[in-house]
Amino acid sequence: IKDMSDEEHKAQTAAEEEVTLFDKIVQGKIPADVIYEDDLAMAFRDINPVAKTHFLVIPKDRQGLTMFSKAEDRHKELLGHLMVTAAKVAEQEGLGEGYRIVINNGKFGCQAVYHLHIHVIGGEQLGWPPTGLKKS
Fold this sequence. Notes:
Blueprint: H1 6-13, H2 21-26, E1 34-37, E2 41-45, E3 53-59, H3 76-92, E4 99-102, E5 118-122
Antiparallel strand pairs: 1-2, 2-3, 3-5, 4-5
């Protein structure tokens, strides 16, 4: 049995919740370093950054999007808005040289909070393949 990272352990034990950590951030009940907000989305710095710049973009109202695989046709506008927001905030954060967009989905995807969120990671040269991938 291999040792799990803290994030892998969180993902293995995470469960869908009525009110998520991110809902509490949107409600102002938990502090966050918010770098962008509009009517539909919020962006804030990740508390455990994996690169020089690492922020999350979330929908303020999940609309049932606990994870990416729950996306339906009715979510097209919101999903598009989140991606445009990610690009806008990446530019605001000076990531013109490039960045990575990551959406973790489910426990094998290392999703620890069941509130759809987009990781935007950059500010330095990133490697390929992304860390955490195992060669077969």
